[in-house]
Amino acid sequence: MHECMSLDLTFAALADPTRRAILARLTQGEATVGELVRPSALSQPTVSRHLDVLERAGLIERRRDHAFRRVSLRPTALVEAWQWLGRYEAFWAGSFDRLDALVRTLPVPEVPSMSDDADRELTLTRDFPVPPSVLFLACSRPDYLRQWFGPAGYPLTLCEMDFRVGGRYRFAMTGPDGVQGPVFGGEYVAIEADRLIRYTNRFEAPGAEEMVVTLSFEAVPGGARLTHHTRFASASMKQLHVGYGYTQGVGSGLDQLAALVNRLGVS
Question: Taking a C-beta distance cutoff of 8 angstroms, is the pair 233, 120 a contact?
Fold first, then answer.
């Protein structure tokens, strides 16, 4: 009974992508709660609730170090889960052996060589029933950005912009709990009216990695296509942000952008 309860807690904790991203970060070494908050759009209380679940499952441990709460990985529960899964190894091992025998009989196709760029890049596209100029306007003015940027329920409550090449910006979002998240920002490195906006993006914390975001606007039949391209500093940075819900957050923001540009397009 104790083993079943322990496994229930472990697998329930691992079922959430945010908690898996936290564990992935902790494989690199212990971290403070603040360091776990910075890569995400989540507030500290929200991350703390995820840490409560992980701690109850025995996957992490927390200790106080002067003014900081430090979090480290506790792999015992993962070992227990792995041992439980190991009981079924014979079933999938036999399948893998048969798969290996099959693929050895198949011809080997020519695969073009690829760089590691794909491991640290993410591209999303969305079509809108408005011209590129309307999309560009919605992405270049703070009064419009406050209406759509970020996931639904996490509005920009800090939005400082100097929209020109070489200009800088500072953003922060506030979640449903009313707590403002960490400040992030960067520099506008390329701007082409109605065609392109490129900017750097990082959290305002020592050692925070930097990503480069490019918004491209292209005329298509019936409107315009926005391509949102992110180049992360490393594959591990991409993995961490995607685990924290980066893709869903950008998609949610684009949903809100669609509602805004529809209003702008008819005004």
Answer: yes
Same domain, residue pair 29 and 153: no
Q: Which domain holds residue 126?
A: 120-266
Task: Looking at the structure, tell me whether residues 31 and 95 fall in a common domain.
Answer: yes
List average pLDDT for each run of 10 residues in the chain, which is 267 residues long: 68 84 83 78 81 88 81 79 69 67 69 64 95 94 94 93 96 89 94 97 89 96 95 92 90 94 73
Q: At what angle do helices 2-14 and 76-86 cross, to 10 degrees?
A: 100
190-235, pLDDT tens digit by residue? Answer: 999 999 999 999 999 888 899 999 999 999 999 999 999 999 999 9
Q: Which of 72, 97, 113 is the last residue of a domain?
A: 113
User: Between vectors from CA 221 to CA 215 and to CA 226, what angle results, nearest 5°?
Assistant: 10
Domain count, the chain: 2
In angstroms, the Cα distances linking 35 to 107, 136, 198, 251 are 48, 34, 26, 25
d(CA 44, CA 158): 17
Same domain, 203 and 237: yes
Distances (CA, A) of 163 to 28, 138, 193: 37, 12, 12
pLDDT, tens digit, 9 for 90 and up, residues 85-98: 666 666 656 666 67
Domain boundary residue among 113, 134, 157?
Answer: 113
Residues 48, 34: Cα–Cα separation, whole Å: 10
How far, rounded to the nearest angstrom, does the alpha carbon of residue 228 sit from its chain's CA centroid? 14
Residues 137 and 102 in one domain: no
How distant, in Å, are the alpha carbons of 147, 156, 256 from that of 144? Answer: 5, 11, 11
Contact 186, 201 (CB under 8 A): yes
